[in-house]
TrEMBL record:
<feature type="binding site">
    <location>
        <begin position="8"/>
        <end position="10"/>
    </location>
    <ligand>
        <name>substrate</name>
    </ligand>
</feature>
<feature type="binding site">
    <location>
        <position position="75"/>
    </location>
    <ligand>
        <name>substrate</name>
    </ligand>
</feature>
<dbReference type="InterPro" id="IPR006439">
    <property type="entry name" value="HAD-SF_hydro_IA"/>
</dbReference>
<feature type="active site" description="Proton donor/acceptor">
    <location>
        <position position="8"/>
    </location>
</feature>
<keyword id="KW-0479">Metal-binding</keyword>
<feature type="binding site">
    <location>
        <position position="51"/>
    </location>
    <ligand>
        <name>substrate</name>
    </ligand>
</feature>
<dbReference type="InterPro" id="IPR023214">
    <property type="entry name" value="HAD_sf"/>
</dbReference>
<feature type="binding site">
    <location>
        <position position="168"/>
    </location>
    <ligand>
        <name>Mg(2+)</name>
    </ligand>
</feature>
<comment type="similarity">
    <text>Belongs to the HAD-like hydrolase superfamily. CbbY/CbbZ/Gph/YieH family.</text>
</comment>
<feature type="binding site">
    <location>
        <position position="144"/>
    </location>
    <ligand>
        <name>substrate</name>
    </ligand>
</feature>
<dbReference type="InterPro" id="IPR041492">
    <property type="entry name" value="HAD_2"/>
</dbReference>
<feature type="binding site">
    <location>
        <position position="24"/>
    </location>
    <ligand>
        <name>substrate</name>
    </ligand>
</feature>
<keyword id="KW-0460">Magnesium</keyword>
<keyword id="KW-0413">Isomerase</keyword>
<dbReference type="GO" id="GO:0050308">
    <property type="term" value="F:sugar-phosphatase activity"/>
</dbReference>
<feature type="binding site">
    <location>
        <begin position="43"/>
        <end position="48"/>
    </location>
    <ligand>
        <name>substrate</name>
    </ligand>
</feature>
<dbReference type="InterPro" id="IPR010976">
    <property type="entry name" value="B-phosphoglucomutase_hydrolase"/>
</dbReference>
Length: 214
C-alpha cells in the first residue's frame, strides 16, 4: 500500500517550462540559431547541462566543457531573474489542494525534481511547508530516466520504493519512476505518457481513491 507521494516540480506543481524556454531561446539566439516550443518539450525533466548539450546539437554548435559551463550559468542567470518574480498565483490548478489533501490523509510528501532551483521556486510560490523531503538536482547526479532522484526521496522519507507514487509530466520522469519500482501517475496527455499507471490532466483531477486503486 501507498505511504508516500513524490512530486516532480516543473509541469506538475508549477509551469516553469515557459521560463526555461525563454532563457534557452535567448541563449540559442545569441549563438545564432533558434528552436521551437515543440523542441522545448524534449527538454522537460532533463538536467541543465544535458539540456544545453541537446540544444547545441540542434544548432550544430560545438563547445568545450568550460564554455558549456559558462553558457549554462548565463542561461541560469536569466532564468533565475524570471523565477524570483514568481508568485503563488502560478501554482498549477489543484496542486496545493492535493498536497494538503494527501498530508491530511497521513501520506508523506517529497519533491523529486531535476532542478537546482527548486527551493527558490517553492519559496516564491509558498509551498515549502507541504513537503517532508526535498530532493532535487543539488542532491543527485543522474538525470531522469535514471530513478536516483525518486529513490533518494523514498530513502529520505524512510519508505520502500513500492510504497511510493510519483507524479510526473515528463516521459523521462515516468520511466524513472517505473525503473525505481514505483507507481507513476502522468500529468498531461495519455497518448504521450503511455508508460504511466494512470494519466490525469492535472492534480485537480486527483483523488485519494484514484491513487489507492492503481
Ligand atoms: P535547473 P523538473 C526540470 O524540472 C525541468 O523540467 C527541466 O527543463 C530543467 O532543465 C531541469 O529541471 C533543471 O533545472 O536548470 O533549474 O537546474 O521537471 O525535474 O522539476
Ligand atoms: Mg517536470
Amino acid at each position: 500500500n501507498i505511504k508516500a507521494c513524490i512530486f516532480d516540480l516543473d509541469g506538475v506543481i508549477v509551469d516553469t517550462a515557459v521560463y526555461h524556454y525563454k532563457a534557452w531561446r535567448r541563449l540559442a539566439n545569441q549563438l545564432g540559431f533558434d528552436f521551437t516550443e515543440e523542441q522545448n518539450e524534449e527538454l522537460k525533466g532533463i538536467s541543465r547541462i544535458e539540456s544545453l548539450k541537446i540544444i547545441l546539437n540542434w544548432g550544430a554548435v560545438s563547445k568545450s566543457d568550460k564554455e558549456m559551463q559558462e553558457l549554462a550559468t548565463l542561461k541560469n542567470n536569466w532564468y533565475v531573474e524570471m523565477i524570483t518574480k514568481m508568485t503563488p498565483e502560478e501554482i498549477l490548478p489543484g496542486a496545493k489542494e492535493f498536497l494538503e489533501l494527501v498530508r491530511t490523509n497521513h501520506y508523506l510528501t517529497a519533491l523529486g525534481s531535476a532542478s537546482k532551483n527548486s527551493e527558490t521556486i517553492l519559496k516564491q510560490i509558498g509551498l515549502m511547508h507541504l513537503f517532508d523531503a526535498l530532493v532535487d538536482g543539488n542532491k543527485v547526479t543522474k538525470s531522469k530516466p535514471n530513478p536516483e532522484v525518486f529513490l533518494v526521496g523514498a530513502k529520505e522519507l524512510n519508505v520502500q520504493p513500492e510504497e511510493c507514487v510519483v507524479f510526473e509530466d515528463a516521459i523521462a520522469g515516468i520511466q524513472a519512476a517505473k525503473a525505481g519500482n514505483m507507481k507513476a501517475i502522468g500529468i498531461g496527455r495519455a497518448a504521450v505518457l503511455n508508460e504511466a499507471d494512470l494519466v490525469v490532466a492535472g492534480l485537480f483531477e486527483m483523488t485519494i481513491e484514484k491513487m489507492e486503486n492503481l
